[in-house]
Amino acid sequence: MTTRRTTVAVVGGGQAGLSTSWFLTRDGVDHVVLEAGTAAHEWADTRWDNFTLVTPNWHCRLPGYAYEGPDPDGFMTRDEVVAWLAGYPGTFDPPLHEHTRVTALRQRDGGGFTLESTAPDGPVTWEAEHVVVATGGYHVPIVPPWAAALDPAITQLESAHYRRESDLPDGAVLVVGSGQSGAQIAEDLHLAGRKVHLAVGDAPRVARTYRGRDTMTWLAEMGLYDTPVATYPGGLAAREKTNHYVTGRDGGRDIDLRQFAREGMGLHGMLEGLAAPGGSTLRFLATLTAALDSADATYNSICADVDRYIEQAGVTAPPPSRYEPVWAPTADPLELDLAAAGISTVVWAIGYRPDYRWVGVGVFDGAGRPTHERGVTAVPGLSFLGLPWLHTWGSGRFHGIARDAEHVAGVITRSLPAVRRAG
């Protein structure tokens, strides 16, 4: 087995890992970026054909690299994001090792770390003084354990494996989960003419545009994406929140589940379970009415926050408005017979959980999430990047990754004597 040495090993070649590499390169720090596939490959591998960003294009900025296209207030498609990211490595030539999967990380006696990896030319052991884990926090799809007992005639797939409506067998589709992916996949199927049922969770929603501007542009101007998680309402619990559902499709618009229901989409509350093993009848909690009301309350609350900002800042803007429900369930549905409803497919969009079993260092809480302060753990030399709410709301987005990467890379650089830096 080959053994190689480096000062810093960055695990993951997505936007977080590449951003870290940009700062380390700028500061002359010897390092490598170890990527299991190809750089930023997940944008192509885990998004559906009609995917668009939900944040305006001007949010898309990485260290030394920003969106410079003709539509800063628009929303890039999946393929446009992939093309934009593909241009990034060429701007600074990172020491990127693609198709190199790190399978184990452990501390070395006396300090530093050992990383076991598989590479195109065989296994490689890396020894590093510092490690930045930049593999994100969404690794394993959340699927209820009873899903295996569902009627085998029904196709099941996770949201990351959904590509297009035409790939699915004929029939209606049940989408489970109303976060950003679930709501947008339900919209994609609905617009394609499929009969869709949606199990609605507790995700909030937000207006696409309000008082003449994109709501996320207002929020950025108001400093919401820059507020540290420790001072955000609810504190560290914000890391567990689901993102607001909205879409950038066709130039951007609201996702109004009530309007979808008026157009024929079946809405249900949280999915509770299977009525009988091997059957096709599902049970739901009586949460639909409350979930829709709560999402709308968040929508109106955010608009009210914008109203206050406009007034305080003296900004000239169109008059305020308030969302009023266009539909309401007469009762919360408690059961759905998939066979009777003609449902051939279930798309699981409940979410993903982290999987750091390959990291053999004790820095995790009881839920398997790394404990850290702005990405820096209590174990000297070990950091994490690319996590939602790592430091601010912008941390898990293009909007905030440069700031996080600069902080973590700066901690590393300041710990090294100049003689240990490359060049």
UniProtKB/TrEMBL annotation:
InterPro entries: Auxin_biosynth/cation_transpt (IPR050982), CHP04046_FMN-dependent (IPR024000), FAD/NAD-bd_sf (IPR036188)
Matches recorded under SUPFAM superfamilies: FAD/NAD(P)-binding domain
Alphabetically ordered keywords of this record: Oxidoreductase
Leader peptide range in chain numbering: none
Source superkingdom: Bacteria
Pfam families in the record: Pyr_redox_3
Protein name stated in the entry: MSMEG_0569 family flavin-dependent oxidoreductase
Gene source species: Nocardioides nanhaiensis
